[in-house]
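Annotators were shown the component list below and the corresponding predicted structure, then asked to write short factual statements about the assembly.
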Amino acid sequence: MFEVVVPDLGADVEKAKISFWHYDEGDKVEKNDDVVELATDKATFNVPAPESGIIAELCVKEGDEVEVGEVIAFIDEEAEELELVEEDEEEDTNF
Amino acid sequence: MSSNAVSTRLPSWLIKKIYRNEISLETKEILKSLKLNTVCESARCPNMWECFSKHRATFMILGDICTRNCAYCSVKKGLPARIENSEPANIVEAVGRLNLKHVVITSVTRDDLEDGGAAHFARTVRMIKKMYSGVVVEVLTPDFQGDIDCIRQVAESGPDIFNHNIETVTRLYRQVRPQADYFRSLNLLKFIKDNYPGIYTKSGLMVGLGENRDELESTFDDLIAHSCDILTIGQYLSPSRNNIPVAEYIHPDEFKYLEKVAFEKGFLYVMSGPFVRSSYNADQVFSKNYGKKEV
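Structure shown to annotators:
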């Protein structure tokens, strides 16, 4: 399971606001796809997925304030692999 | 995809991707281990992760506390700390470890020091040039309160580019830069070009503070009349609720228009865009032939 963490956003920036989730739980994401939009007083950032997988959990909702370093989502890499295995099995049964 | 976007979202052209990867984390670690300040972090620059992911950073010397209280800036204000004598050597080491070919050195404003920090600036430039003679060194300095001896001291240390930001149009100075002076900044640029013609002069403007097109074009004219070679134009973003608010988010098309006008006014090189900052992609000035004249 991979964590999506609020990154360091500059000196003395301790908090940010979740302004937009680009995905819902259960959605598939690719590594480096933008997962969440974070707003500070100064700027707005898109935080990319650290790895490919399925969004297992969004820990906070839009409008919530989060702290730098806080885990805000989990990406399940194994779920993606499982899905691929299931897809392969489905393909196999077609022979 | 979620549908309930928060109403405070910025225009799409002002959303910056975070480039958090091995290289950017390594850059952060190198800077931290050498106890170096960067304006990237201190000014909460939205380009920080992008630049760090290319092993680029703008060193901020003379501490991280500024003696001025500009309304647009998030650098800490107050009584500055003692100057670290090891700072120039640490920057030289960082230049090597980051493999920088174009180094930008800026500083907090140190009105508390007799020389405004000019000797420290000069020492830093000289040490870089001594160790890496082929590296382009750009200084982005405060106005040194117009003290010619201080400005001369930095210029004679051998920088390739002397950058001093005009920041905004003259009408907004009292509100935005109360301790600075529009004409003092212009005269600094002219002094450099008149006395050190081999050094490129550079300045930067923030837009979105409430200025209008005529005022901007008038500022372009003033900069050209004061021998400014290179211009950067970027969107002002308010660092916190304690800073001056943004008056307007300027559309990317307007940035293109301003770039075109600035070139027509005679700048050798212009970089204009929402995320352009005075040292953003600073190395491009020598790698791309944007202008009609050779830079």
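Statements collected:
1. Residues 118-131 of chain B form the longest helix (14 residues).
2. The two ends of chain B are 47 Å apart (CA to CA).
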